Amino acid sequence: MSKSKKTIRKPAIRAAITGVFGYVPPDVLTNAELAKMVDTSDEWIVERTGIRERHILKGKGLGTSHMGAEAVRGLLSKTGTASGDVELLICATTTPDLVFPSTANLICDMAGIRNIGSFDVQAACSGFVYALTIAAQFIETGKFRKIVVVGADKMSAIIDYTDRATCVLFGDAAGAVLIEPSKKYGIVDTLIRSDGAGMPHLHQKAGGSRMPPTAETVAKRLHYVHQEGAAVYKFAIARMADVATELMQRNHLTSDQIDWLVPHQANRRIIEATAERMKLDPKQVMVTIHKYGNTTAATIPLCLWDYENKLKAGDRMILVAFGGGFTWGGAYLTWAYDTP
After folding, report:
1. Distance (Å, rounded) from C-alpha 123 to C-alpha 323?
2. Is 31 a catalytic residue?
3. Which residue is catalytic, options 55, 201, 226, 264?
4. Which residues contact 93 (CB under 8 A, 6 or more apart)?
5. C-alpha to C-alpha distance for 161 and 133, rounded to whole angstroms
6. pLDDT at 2 over 50
7. C-alpha angle 14-15-16 in degrees, rounded to nearest 5
8. 77, 146, 314, 323: least surrounded by Cβ within 10 Å?
9. Are residues 160 and 64 in the same domain?
10. Are residues 169 and 250 in the same domain?
11. Among this protein's residues, is 294 annotated catalytic?
12. What is the pLDDT confidence band of residue 272, given thresholds at 50, 70 and 90?
């Protein structure tokens, strides 16, 4: 049986996104400022990526957890959820504060959430989709009724600002969603995929157990993101479109039945190519890359937060992402509420 013909299980209860909140640091790094740091220009960056500016987290001792906690506190306040009612918190991140404990642990502590399960998911830019897929299982089985999923990354901590190929792409941010059971709306189907053969094209060379940090690894600048842009671009266009069309086929969806495409914000051209293959109008595509850049695991929740006032209950949307490793994934869901 092919993947596209797989029978989709229909649980009695679905995992629905019932609230979203985002956080971006106040400091903005514009293309004009980057042009003073490396050989580039606003025109060059916008033409190739669609990015005009990105937010950077500054401040001594501030890591990914700071942004994640800001997003979670805002989410709880906005949805009227008491910290004691949250039963699980999952944080998707590639830039944890520490090797251990998990950034999810730190976010819980900072947000006043106690005595629950919390853990990190590391799937690079696909991390939020992976974390959403995990959370859905806990809701569908009835194990939990309130789960917070966070996507957060401080990419500025692992970017070489002398490397034009990468420093123009990334920004810092966090987004958080509340997941609750619903009999009417929610996550209908998800797909997650990976191929470790893609590692050489996008990875961080040093800092892990294979190559622990030393004076030499620091001197050789091996603790920054290494990306082979052409290879990543080729795979990202193919895989994001593949997963989106597979979700459509599996769920018997046509283009005119989809209200929104929520793509990972890596490159404007990749977003446009994915939408074109799905035969969607550009007005149906969430785009925030111009003002936030690639915020890795935070891009999809930031899109939902940014477009929330345009969404209505029942809207059909497809989320798709592609990340280092390689990883990719997608989700088909129906939006659960009208914006107040």
Report:
1. 7
2. no
3. 264
4. 64, 68, 103, 120, 121, 122, 127, 150, 151, 152, 153, 296, 297
5. 34
6. no
7. 105
8. 77
9. yes
10. no
11. yes
12. very high
- Asked whether residue 216 falls in the same domain as residue 318, the answer is yes
Q: What's the maximum distance between 2 C-alpha atoms anywhere in the chain? A: 56
Q: For residue 11, name the pLDDT band (cuts at 50, 70, 90).
A: confident
The answer to whether the beta carbons of residues 173 and 155 sit under 8 Å apart is no
How confident is the model at residue 101, as a pLDDT? 97
My answer on whether 324 and 192 are in the same domain is yes
Q: Is 264 annotated as catalytic?
A: yes
| Given the residues 91, 108, 125, 167, the one annotated as active site | 125
The one catalytic residue in 31, 105, 267, 294 is 294
Residue-range definition of the domain harbouring residue 137: 14-185
My answer on whether 206 and 318 are in the same domain is yes
Task: Tokens for 168, please give them.
Answer: 């123009």
Question: What is the per-residue pLDDT for 12?
Answer: 85
Same domain, 259 and 308: yes
How many structural domains does the chain have?
Answer: 2
In a domain, 314, yes or no: yes
> Residue 120 is part of a domain; what is its CATH number?
3.40.47.10
Q: What pLDDT is stored for residue 293 in this prediction? A: 98
Which two tokens mark 89? 């918190």
**Is pLDDT of 30 > 60?**
yes
